[in-house]
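Thread: quick sanity check before group meeting

JM: Hey all, I'm pulling together slides for Thursday and realized we never actually wrote out the predicted structure for the chain we discussed last week. Dropping the sequence here so it's in one place. If anyone has concerns about the input, flag it before I start.
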Amino acid sequence: MPDVRRDHDAARAIAEAALGHDPGPLAAVESRSHHVYVGSDTVVKIIDAGGHTRLNREIALAPHLPAGLAAPLLGSGVHRLGTDDIRYACYVRVPGAAPGMGLPGVDGETARLLAREAVQRLGALHDWVPSGDVEELLREPLDHGGFVSGPALIGEVENLAALDGQGAVPRRVLDGLTAIAERAPLPARAVVPVHADCHWDNWLVRDRSVTALLDFEWARFGEPADDWFFLARFSGPHLETVLDVIAGATGTPAETLRGQCEAREAAHLVADLRIAFENPGSHEEMAADRLRDLEELTVGRYWWHHAR
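JM (edit): ok, ran it. Output follows.
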């Protein structure tokens, strides 16, 4: 179990060193993979040094990202606390709050405004041309669980069926996944920098305006649809609005965009469910969630049932 007091003390020491003065109160906020502490001027992300190394990726990218896209990095490194080493990143706190998965409480007009600004900011990321060590970092192989190609997705579906000893995945879902793979677009290309996790929990918004995109730990080379999927899929009742904004801003035909998003959702869900089946007893909740989402994707034709 994490030592909450220890981690809070470490975050305070890190923030004070970065700012050069007392950071004031720091509040813990929910995070799936880190301990995150937020103050009036700073945000501190920490993880045991022996944990995953994705924070190192974010730290290396931070100084090179397009101006105004992400929170400025104040400091990073390894902090020694007693007998433990903690990896950390300390950022300037950008005004705003995450609108949240599904854009709860957001009206249609605001959703369109936020989508337009998010698409513009992602466009700046996609237009960025990194070089040197940063380019090499973004091209490093990364098991992102996303769409690679139709044949690769079919292979993942076959692996999933082989792992499913209990018959948890209905035949109609497997058939639906195969159909998605067979009509999937051309193999994904690694042509532009993508965030690859830009759901609405990773944006900051203030006064109906986007202020920053956070958490670049999964950033890599990909294609714009890798980001359009996350932006649209987690817009809740505003899916059609966000798809319309993306299609208009990028000149992508609506049917093409739906197909790109559908293939990416299938790949992510199958990858997550495979992990759950490979680790029985530790991912029951995730398995149930992904099975439900796969039913909605394949049988419910999620990306198409509102298409005109």
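AS: nice. The longest strand covers residues 73-81. The longest helix spans residues 254-278.
JM: adding both to the slides.
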